[in-house]
Amino acid sequence: MNPAEESRDKLAVKVSDAERDIAVERLKDHYVAGRLTLSELEDRAAVAYQAATVAQLGAITADLPAQGKTSERTSTEMNPQVLILLLCFCPPAAFVYWLITRSPARRYHSHSQQRPSGV
């Protein structure tokens, strides 16, 4: 098998739900950096969740810098003033802003609570 056929075969590999979620997180990072508009983010996220192969998933970020080349956000802390302005002028953008800036601990909060011993 020549290198071109190997490359083509790798692009035809099926993707998992976790890989789709990672791709959407990358899109959110590009949105925050100003590389995507809200409309582009929504469109590309929809395509990401429908992607079946590596090639389809890669197509949504082909025109964006690679992950290592994106600038890191200095803070993911939510600014309440920004949220209020977005709520007033563009509620969908406020929702995306809230999703992006909420803390990871809250995103993956476990609902299991321990009961006190002896009860």
TrEMBL record:
<keyword id="KW-0812">Transmembrane</keyword>
<dbReference type="Pfam" id="PF08044">
    <property type="entry name" value="DUF1707"/>
</dbReference>
<keyword id="KW-0472">Membrane</keyword>
<feature type="domain" description="DUF1707">
    <location>
        <begin position="14"/>
        <end position="65"/>
    </location>
</feature>
<protein>
    <recommendedName>
        <fullName>DUF1707 domain-containing protein</fullName>
    </recommendedName>
</protein>
<keyword id="KW-1133">Transmembrane helix</keyword>
<dbReference type="InterPro" id="IPR012551">
    <property type="entry name" value="DUF1707_SHOCT-like"/>
</dbReference>
<feature type="transmembrane region" description="Helical">
    <location>
        <begin position="82"/>
        <end position="100"/>
    </location>
</feature>
